[in-house]
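## retry 2 of 3
previous attempt timed out at serialization; input unchanged, resubmitting
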Amino acid sequence: MALFKKIAGLDDYLKQRTIPDATFRNWNSYSNNVHFEAGVDVMEAFNLLPDPQTNGGLLIAANNEAALREMLLANGLSQHLTPVGRCVAKKAKVVYVLP
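## retry succeeded, writing output
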């Protein structure tokens, strides 16, 4: 099952096999804190989760989803309304990757 199937252009990016070297360093620094649920394509996740090119810019966490949605719509950013994750109470691992 594709982990990030909703992000446009992702399949083309992965087919290029242009994974930055720092991806490996990032993965080595926190891989012990990641848990993969059954059904997750682990190699796809490995190629995307620690990718240094975003510098964290892909993620936004909000206490008020309605306010965030309104702000994105007001600024012409409706293409960014689909959540790719959610924040939950801390467990044994820091990141849980679900199918």
